[in-house]
């Protein structure tokens, strides 16, 4: 039994069943707090780690968006959940020839993991980076350009299950032989109101997911972009229409394991409900784009042209890496279809890629 598992059992013995959100949150803070989980030697790989092409295209989108917003002299370049810092580092390199962009940018990273902050410090060659635990401490004196890749999927969720004609909340309880298992209880009040707003009709056994942490983050971010002006992108795996299903999963060494396997030692994620995110952003008074597939988004931004340019200067090994990376980013059977991109912005501008 992991030390964290013991703590979870004691908490359940003391307070009764634990919400899934609390379970995810204690597991994830231990998981991310102590390690770098990314890459071949870790538990999972993300788009910026797959190929430099990803960060270069996001950099191009940011530079283009900055110009469409009137090229503000000073702006905040904010990334949430920057992992190893690879995406920001590629963005920074890709934008160095855009006159005024580097001079105007202040980089702010929202990151809670001490281990990953260290990695980011080593990866990003910019002396003026500032770190934050949440949106709250991000300055409010300049327009904001925001990006987050595989961030929302790492925030805790709650699950509701439709049983006997009503919604019940899925919680973590102690089962036989000191195992952890899913139980059901009457839902907490805020979740009842989420269920009441549902326009889909559930069938017996259907599971509906709600991310209170995600909702709070999106609300804070939208409020700031509305007030300070700006734009942003959420890139993540998820679904484009409201739907039911259990998407909570645990990954360890690139393999799927039970969410109760070695608590705190595997990556727990849930698919992002992009329809809900877009609706929430819209309700906060911002423009939300169509929800597009990552493959489509990157192709619309011109990833194929960029690939050709890089291939012209590449040796045989580099060519292979570039082509493989490109396929993994855009092909339907890899990240191209499951990963979605949602753009959002203040004011009346059209943004590229949608
Ligand atoms: N964007 C990176 C890493 C994705 S992994 C990439 O694409 O490679 C998720 C990232 O979110 C990690 O950096 C993790 O430490 C961070 N994270 C998870 N929960 C967080 C929270 N509540 N607040 C801020 N950062 C968080």
Describe the structure.
With 354 residues, the protein is of the alpha/beta class. 41% of the residues lie in helices and 24% in strands. It is built from 14 helices and 16 strands. The protein has helices spanning 3-15, 20-34, 47-50, 52-68, 86-94, 101-104, 114-123, 189-196, 212-228, 274-283, 294-300, 303-312, 316-330, 332-336; strands spanning 18-19, 75-80, 105-110, 130-132, 144-149, 158-163, 166-174, 180-185, 207-210, 230-239, 249-252, 255-257, 267-269, 272-273, 287-293, 339-345. The strands form 3 sheets. Strands 2, 3, 4, 5, 10, 14, 15 and 16 form an 8-stranded mixed β-sheet that branches. Strand 6 and strand 7 (166-174) form a beta hairpin. Helix 4 crosses helix 5 and helix 12 packs antiparallel against helix 13 (316-330). The chain starts with a helix and ends in a 9-residue tail after the last strand. The mean pLDDT is 96. S-adenosyl-L-homocysteine (SAH) binds at residues 32, 38, 46, 48-49, 80-83, 87, 110-113, 116, 149-151, 154-155. S-adenosyl-L-homocysteine binds at residues 32, 38, 46, 48-49, 80-83, 87, 110-113, 116, 149-151, 154-155.
């Amino acid at each position: 039994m992991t030390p964290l598992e013991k703590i979870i059992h004691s908490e359940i013995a003391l307070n009764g069943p634990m919400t899934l959100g609390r379970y995810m949150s204690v597991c994830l803070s231990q998981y991310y707090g102590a390690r770098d989980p990314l890459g071949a030697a870790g538990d999972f790989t993300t788009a910026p780690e797959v190929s430099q092409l990803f960060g270069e295209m996001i950099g191009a989108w940011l530079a283009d968006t900055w110009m469409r917003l009137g090229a503000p002299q000073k702006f905040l370049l904010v990334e949430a959940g920057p992992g190893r810092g690879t995406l920001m580092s590629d963005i920074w390199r890709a934008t160095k020839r855009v006159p005024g962009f580097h001079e105007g940018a202040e980089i702010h990273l929202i990151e809670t993991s001490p281990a990953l902050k260290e990695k980011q410090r080593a990866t990003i060659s910019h002396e003026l980076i500032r770190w934050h635990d949440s949106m709250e401490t991000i300055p409010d004196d300049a327009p904001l350009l925001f990006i987050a890749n595989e961030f929302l999927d790492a925030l805790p969720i709650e699950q509701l299950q439709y049983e006997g004609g009503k919604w019940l909340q899925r919680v973590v309880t102690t089962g036989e032989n000191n195992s952890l298992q899913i139980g059901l209880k009457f839902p907490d009040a805020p979740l009842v109101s989420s269920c009441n707003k549902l326009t889909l009709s559930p069938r017996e056994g259907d599971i509906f997911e709600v991310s209170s942490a995600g909702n709070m983050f999106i609300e804070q971010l939208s409020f700031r972009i509305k007030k300070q002006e700006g734009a942003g992108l959420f890139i993540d795996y998820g679904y484009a229409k409201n739907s039911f299903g259990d998407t909570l999963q645990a990954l360890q060494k690139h393999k799927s394991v039970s969410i109760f396997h070695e608590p705190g030692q595997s990556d727990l994620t849930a698919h992002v409900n992009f329809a809900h995110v877009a609706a929430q952003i819209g309700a906060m008074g911002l423009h939300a784009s169509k929800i597009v597939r990552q493959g489509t988004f990157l192709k619309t931004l011109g990833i194929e042209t960029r690939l050709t340019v890089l291939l012209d200067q590449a040796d045989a090994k580099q060519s292979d890496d570039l082509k493989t990376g490109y396929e993994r980013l855009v092909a339907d059977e890899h990240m191209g279809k499951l990963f979605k991109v949602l753009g959002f912005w203040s004011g009346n501008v059209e943004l590229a890629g949608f």
